[in-house]
Structure formats: structure tokens, C-alpha cells
């Protein structure tokens, strides 16, 4: 009679151990999938600073919160259009990710702003011209470092996730008309 309770206890422990092992295996198997998804498909990106104000960080003067966006990495360097908001490796600080709006595409003639050394520039093949929405004082952009190679592009900003009251799809095409006055192509 004493054997039966011991055996039952052993079976219970074995099933709990099996369940724990199963969960550990599932966790370990999902880690590479999550890392690959984050590296190659999409990621959440936290946006700081005033360079994209008022489009991003619209509450920059009232709060220290950051906007959170979805950064679509899959095929990010293809089908680029004026008005799109992209993330890229900063040419002046290669370890830093930067977010700006595409203003010019290859072949476009861009009317530059200070401090760029020439008044107009033709965007070479394989490059784009990017600028922040925040104006000259708040943005380090192509007016500081020139056209950027499309190989530096990390992703396209597709959705605003935080703050919740502004969450939704990034409607970049609404900015294309404003940009056409700046770029001639």
C-alpha cells in the first residue's frame, strides 16, 4: 500500500519535469525565430529628438516620452518613394540609427539648404536625399552629409505604435506634394 502513493508522487514529478522540459524546449526553439524576425523582417524602433517634429515626437516640448514606430526591414532598400520615412545608418556616426524623410531620388535635382556647400545637387544613382521635418536647426540630414547610399537604409517606418492616441499607419504619401516643390526630377 505504501508503494502506490510513492509511485503516484513519482509520476506527478515526472510529468511536471516533462512539462517544464517541453516549455524550455519551446522557449529555446523560439529564440532564433524571434531574433531572425527582428533582424530581417521588422522591429520596433524608439524615436527621440526633434528632427522629425511635428510628424514624430509631436509632444517634444511637453514630455520626454519617445514615439515608438514599426520599422519594416524586409526589402527596405527597394521601391523607395519621395515622402517615405526611412531609418538608416548615419554616415557621420555609423553606430547610430537615424530616421528621416526621403526628399530626393536618383536623378532628382535638389535645392539644398545651409550648410550644404552648393545651391543645387543632382542625386547620383544608388543614393537618396533625406531631410528631417523639424527644420534646419533641429535636423542633421543630407544638407550636412550629402546624399546617402541606399545600402545604408535599414527600414521603412510603416506605423506609429506609441503614443496610442496617435497610433496608426504612417501616411507618407500625403507629404509627396510638399516635397515636389523642393525636388525636381
From TrEMBL:
The keyword Hydrolase applies. The chain crosses the membrane at residues 20-42. Its main location: mitochondrion. Residues 26-113 form the Peptidase S26 domain. The keyword S-adenosyl-L-methionine does not apply. Pfam families: Peptidase_S26. The active site is at 51, 100. Gene3D superfamilies: Umud Fragment, subunit A. It is found in: Mitochondrion inner membrane. One of its GO terms (biological process) is protein processing involved in protein targeting to mitochondrion. Keywords: Hydrolase, Membrane, Mitochondrion, Mitochondrion inner membrane, Protease, Transmembrane, Transmembrane helix. GO terms for molecular function: serine-type endopeptidase activity. GO terms for cellular component: mitochondrial inner membrane peptidase complex. It is a single-pass membrane protein. Belongs to the peptidase S26 family. IMP2 subfamily. PANTHER family: MITOCHONDRIAL INNER MEMBRANE PROTEASE SUBUNIT 2. This is Mitochondrial inner membrane protease subunit 2.
